[in-house]
Design goal:
The protein is 40% helix and 14% strand. The chain has 11 helices and 12 strands. Helix 3 runs parallel beside helix 4. The structure holds 4'-deoxy-4'-aminopyridoxal-5'-phosphate.
Amino acid sequence: MIYLDNAATTKPRQDVLDTFLKVNESLYFNPNSPHKAGIQAEQLLQQSKDQIKELFKLEKDFDIVFTSGATESNNIAIKGIAYKKRAFANVIITSVLEHPSVLEVVRSLENEGFDIKYVNVTKDGQIDLEHLKSLMSDKVALVTCMQVNNIMGQIQPIEAVAKIVHQYPKAHLHVDAVQAIGKIALDFKSADTMSLSGHKFHGLKGQGLLFVRNLHQIEPIVHGGGQEYGLRSGTVNLPIDIAIVKALKVAVKESAQLYEKLSEFNQEIIQFLNEYSGVKVNSPSGASPHILNVGFPGVKGEVLVNAFSKYDIMLSTTSACSSKKASLNEVLLAMDIPKTQIEGSIRISMGANTTTDDIRNFKEKFNLVYEEVKELLK
Ligand code: PMP
């Protein structure tokens, strides 16, 4: 099987699985317990947070909250900040590029009376910084902007966004960096909060992180025993938390090397596809190399995914979270991609396990799929 759906999820590393199992066997204690074993668990929890801070050289005012994934991290940050600031600022700025775990949260806040504004998107999938400037005011509580898009791979200029946002002292910048970690350098310095999900960088499903600058900026949305600085109550899952740190260390250590490898594969695939008439690369240049979105105008994306799947090539249409929805993908629409090209788009996404052989195999099978659909191409 050739797995080219790494933006949906990645294979867990064996040493991450081993760590998870080992900590479960030997350190299953509750870090909140007052006895010696509980204290040992609490110390390990703190150490793993310190290791993350050290890994990124995070400034002192940052803290780490362990969560179950980026969906939870995005919910805790976006709702928590909105509620905290609602008395004096009720505008939230986002864009249609965001993942549903951001967009659906802001939609639910809209129902609660928050004023949601969407920044325009340029043809190459960047948020329009001039438009962002024009939307900013003292009423803005939060701007939420992803670092790398999960469907097209384009990278947002987080530093430039932060410069605009931070001219307004009440405004907070939340960054969903799920698709950036391990692929490009994380811009956590510009962010006030940042979300990550373990299973996107060869960790496990059900483990996530939220980096928080100034914990008091967030009102808790999960109430209970007060764990994780009161922001994520519930018994701490030490094995899963220690395992994500393991995955994170490797992802950061290997990211420059991986970038090189995936850039080569990305260019190789683009050059190969350019030889096929009717096939269009949708991802803009300068996108993160692990995501390549390709359009086949006239053919349905689902037909292509099934055709590749028949040859044991696993890839997806848009994203795993939205591929079952019938509507046209909003990210591609915002980038002015023609309707037929959107309907016929597939996403090829690579990861640390992608090999030269996988790319060769993909190209071979691509020929077969192309033969099947070429009559339909417009
Ligand atoms: N943000 C982005 C950009 C993503 O790609 C994903 C996963 N598809 C998420 C958030 C949500 O992550 P999870 O499903 O692990 O909670």
